[in-house]
Design a protein that fits this description.
By secondary structure, the protein is mainly alpha-helical. Helices cover 80% and strands 0% of the residues. 18% of the residues are buried. The mean pLDDT is 84.
């Protein structure tokens, strides 16, 4: 899942670059090109770092340590992605930008990758970024508001307290409802996955016992058949005295059939040994 997140970020780097270029030079939207390209380069840089760190984690020993470290990396990556998304949105209109809905997308990713508690923490962090940096900062003048000229008319301004309050209230509830729904689904899937894993282990144990039982029975059958064949061979060798041609023919048939059964049991025994060794 960590690798999946890193791969998504490669796509995000490419997508952000093309969106910036298309918006600036094709749709003629007045955006600040330099800070956006710098932000995209930062996104590329820390994704390269996480990519190499994730490769190193594969060779580290200790499942618990590796899991905790990867969980920390996942939290750090999602937090950085939220900060970078906020940075890019700030220079492209803030709440005027429809890409602000990508916060919801990140909440879904957080619910899939992280524990329930940390997923809700990321939702609270996203609310903080939206509320403090984009809305409060731009509304009260702590930060400059970069209006999307060419996309939204200048006479339309979304920075009024009624709209901001309504937007903020709806967005908060949307983020936390998204976390709740996604974590509920993910928890059910994880529980089902554990149940299936336990069931598979029980089936493997039963299959191993069955293979061991077949191995023991095959060995006993081979021993008995070998003893029968030995007796028939002694009779055919006239060591017990001469026998009639009719009797020799019948004994010879029995000896051939016993030989075929021995080969069959040997194959069955080899197969049982292979399965037992593979399961072990």
């Amino acid at each position: 899942r960590i690798e999946w997140l890193i791969q998504l970020r490669w796509l995000a780097v490419i997508g952000v670059f093309f969106v910036i270029i298309i918006s600036k030079y094709i749709f003629k939207i007045d955006i600040y090109l330099f800070p956006l390209l710098i932000g995209n380069l930062i996104l590329l840089f820390y994704n390269i770092l996480f990519y190499h760190n994730n490769k190193k984690l594969k060779y580290e020993k200790g499942k618990i340590w590796k899991y905790n470290k990867k969980l920390l990396y996942a939290n750090l990556q999602i937090s950085l992605d939220l900060i970078m998304l906020t940075y890019l949105l700030h220079f492209t209109g803030g709440i005027e930008n429809p890409f602000i809905s990508y916060f919801i997308f990140h909440m879904v990713i957080a619910s899939i990758l992280l524990t329930n508690r940390t997923a809700y923490f990321q939702a609270g962090f996203a609310v903080f970024l939206i509320g403090i940096i984009i809305i409060s900062g731009e509304y009260f003048g702590f930060l400059n508001h970069y209006h999307l000229s060419g996309f939204i008319p200048k006479e339309i301004c979304l920075l009024n307290w009624r709209y901001l309050f309504s937007f903020f209230a709806v967005y908060i509830t949307t983020l936390f409802i998204t976390i709740y729904i996604t974590t509920t689904i993910v928890n059910k899937l994880r529980k089902r996955e554990k149940e299936l894993e336990i069931a598979n282990k029980k089936l493997e144990e039963k299959d191993k016992l069955k293979s061991q039982y077949v191995q023991v029975v095959s060995h006993d059958l081979k021993s008995s058949l070998s003893a029968i064949q030995s007796c028939l061979t002694v009779v055919l060798s006239n060591l017990t005295g001469p026998i009639s041609e009719k009797s020799r023919e019948m004994v010879s048939r029995a000896e051939q059939r016993s030989q075929s059964l021995i080969h069959f049991v040997e194959n069955l025994l080899d197969l049982s040994r292979m399965r037992v060794n593979k399961e072990a």
